[in-house]
Amino acid sequence: MSEQISVLVVDDEPIIRAGLGAILDSQADLTVAGTAGDGEEAVEACARLRPDVLLLDIRMPRRNGLWALAELGRRGLLGPGRSQALMLTTFDLDEYVDEALAAGASGFLLKNSSYEELTGAVRAAAAGHRALSPAVTARIIEGHLRARQRPSDQELARLRDLTERERDVLRLVGDGLSNAEIADRLVVSLHTVKTHVSRMLTKTGCQSRAQAAVLARNTLP
Questions:
Q1: Closest Cα to residue 108, out of 127, 89, 123?
Q2: Phi/psi at 163 (nearest 5 deg)?
Q3: Burial annotation 73-93 (CB, 10 A radius, 16+ → b, else e)
Q4: What are the TM regions of this chain, as residue ranges (predicted)?
Q5: Virtual CA dihedral for 26, 114, 96, 99, nearest 10 degrees?
Q6: Does the structure show a pLDDT above 60 at 99?
Q7: Containing H/E element for 35?
């Protein structure tokens, strides 16, 4: 990632794009790489600009944010070392939030979030951390878990190649711990944790820590 965090702002409302862009450009470490008005434009712009973070509206006409998220994943444009997708919505109980996280979104943010929440979430997503609005974090994760009765065979298969230490790391990611907190808990270096997290994401096929957290909370005791 470059010294500045580049952001692609995707929303069908020009005034929202302008407002978000103004907030981001006011920060010394953030820059708006470009904007898009729907899912198709978002995918094309991401492939061309390779931003660190996409601010991606869920609800848009024509191709919405979920379509864009799936297409970005299919093209290999999301994940560690690539772009991170931070989903935007006006609804804290949006029915698509669970699907977005499962598809590899790095986080979920309300459009009425404060400046500090918005910029903090972008920085967290760029660093590969889960970036969920404080107002909805618990409801998203717990709601997902309540809806699931037992892990599927496909989910369990994703854990098959993990070492015991990588399972420990996955479990702690599921508990919401940062890399530094995991290092303290396991009494290892931060570099070692980053290596374990990277291998765990690769082996499980997770494209973000948020997706790994959902997998952990649904499969590990």
A1: 89
A2: -75, 170
A3: beeebbbeeebbbbbbbeeee
A4: none
A5: 70
A6: yes
A7: strand 30-36
